[in-house]
Amino acid sequence: MILFELKCTNGHHFEAWFRDGGAFDRQAKGGKVECPVCLDTSVVKAPMAPAVSTSSRKNSNKQQGEHRAKEVAREIIKAVSKIQKHVEENCDYVGDKFAEEAKAIHYGEAEERKIYGEATDQEAVELFEEDIPVYKVPWNQRRDS
Ligand SMILES: [Zn+2]
User: Which among 96, 115, 121, 143 is least surrounded, fewest beta carbons within 10 Å?
Assistant: First the structure.
């Protein structure tokens, strides 16, 4: 596995793991590598940040820890935007009528389809109790929506 630092045409930097260098080239050519920020698929390898060696061991461990934390945060953002995109493309948005609509679909009173929207924790518990499948996903609030 190789970690590549990547860059989209809008200048967003992000990192992704690939099996090898060839795997990146194939996926990038096929438009399968997308920027987690703007979903741009024109992605190129960015030059790796140079490794810095410091004389203090403690200091470098701390930097590694911070780097790791940033990496994890980026992975989460990436995963969230993937889930979100999938949901937006495949489900109907029903806003705060989610619980109502989920019940109507479950009991055959509304057209069978996948929906998404906002539900309170209390509503989600009620749906669980009625055996209605509900998934809670992390969500990025986008300014353009
Ligand atoms: Zn981008």
Answer: 143
Nearest to 7 by CA among 52, 41, 30: 41
How many angstroms does the Cα of residue 13 sit away from the middle of ligand 1? Answer: 7
Distance 6 CA to ligand 1 centre (A): 10
Confidence band of 27 (pLDDT split at 50, 70, 90): very high
**Ion ligand 1, residue ranges at CB < 5 A:** 8, 10, 12, 35, 37-38, 40
Domain ranges of the chain: 1-46, 89-129
* Confidence (pTM): 0.44
Q: Cα–Cα distance between 5 and 16 in angstroms, integer?
A: 7
Kindly give the distance from the C-alpha atom of residue 42 to the centroid of ligand 1, in angstroms, as a whole number. Answer: 9
Q: So what's the pLDDT on residue 145?
A: 47
**Contact partners, residue 41, CB within 8 Å, separation at least 6:** 31, 32, 33, 34, 35
Task: Classify 17 as helix, strand or coil.
Answer: strand
